[in-house]
Amino acid sequence: MSFELHASHDEQLTRLAQELSKGSLDLSGDLVLRIVRESYASLARTASVSQHLVSLTERFAKQRLADIARHHTHSDTPQVLFLCVANAGRSQLAAALLNHLSDGAVIARSAGSAPSSEIHPGVQRMLTDIEGESRSAERFPKPLTDDAVRAADVVITMGCGDVCPILPGVRYEEWDVPDPAAASGQDLEEIREDITTRVRALLDTLSNK
Amino acid sequence: MSFELHASHDEQLTRLAQELSKGSLDLSGDLVLRIVRESYASLARTASVSQHLVSLTERFAKQRLADIARHHTHSDTPQVLFLCVANAGRSQLAAALLNHLSDGAVIARSAGSAPSSEIHPGVQRMLTDIEGESRSAERFPKPLTDDAVRAADVVITMGCGDVCPILPGVRYEEWDVPDPAAASGQDLEEIREDITTRVRALLDTLSNK
Fold first, then answer.
1. In chain A, what are the domains?
2. Which of A15, A25, B78, B207 has CA 20 to 30 A from B55's CA?
């Protein structure tokens, strides 16, 4: 275990929390620090490369703080949460497609019930194709959090079963989409087509609200 | 997915948070509610039987609140956190043995980097043998949390690699103990003997502080 590396991580997390607290959110510094530290702990459970952990924590914690703020302020922009097991294939692809097809009119999030350490390489190539190198490189598998469910208007589950608390006012759908982890190149294209069709149909229901 | 069941869960969680807030802890109701909800979400990711989820959440949230309170108050009772991958074998056994052998003079906790849905049946029988039916029935696999690490004086890792933030003032040890999941009855006895010897040695170092 790399003791020194991680000791410096803790200082970096404290600084990160201080910076995030300075943002416009109406949250106490203590709560922000706790969310940053807990985000790190939950990513550390699954991440394979520890030197990226602090930057992953920053992205994950920012999303969680945005989810909490959104839950408080009741934003008008619809938010959709895609859930699968590994958050390495289907849910990443669906979120990227919805972001892309809605052109920013919908916020798409994704998470997994047992997140992998990395996105499936075939899916990563598709993400780059959909939304470009820099944006797709920002994506990473992350665990389902309570904040993410509460911030969502729609939750789409894909093969992850009964992992999601059911809340009043949130719409739930189960999509029966194959797992890209076991798919060939051709199968992967079909999965992308399948998800694209479903995302377009979903987008229609959100625009007509 | 059992939608109705989970809708009632959310009300139960809100009541649970209200009850826990009435305790002696110096924590805001908002923070307690958040910890209760997040505990539920993280257990829901791995639990196999959803009807036990609320009672598991109560036990997990109480531990987490105790960990946070302990970190604030700097208790004199040493606390040890045992970590393995599944929190279904080695770490459960080590925590039960340390609780038993220390006779309450040490607080033992356990957690996993990828918690299973259930404790390994052979280990569950040993836990019952060590600490009795009612206490052993209270044990369950749970994910590593930041609070648990910060509340610990000693963290013992068993085969779960680099998952734990390294903090100043916390002592870390790696124990090379085989995984009971793949063990026969005889092997399991040997693992218990191995852990018992290590726990006794650890206890000596804690008593001599």
1. 1-74 (1.10.8.1060), 76-209 (3.40.50.2300)
2. B78
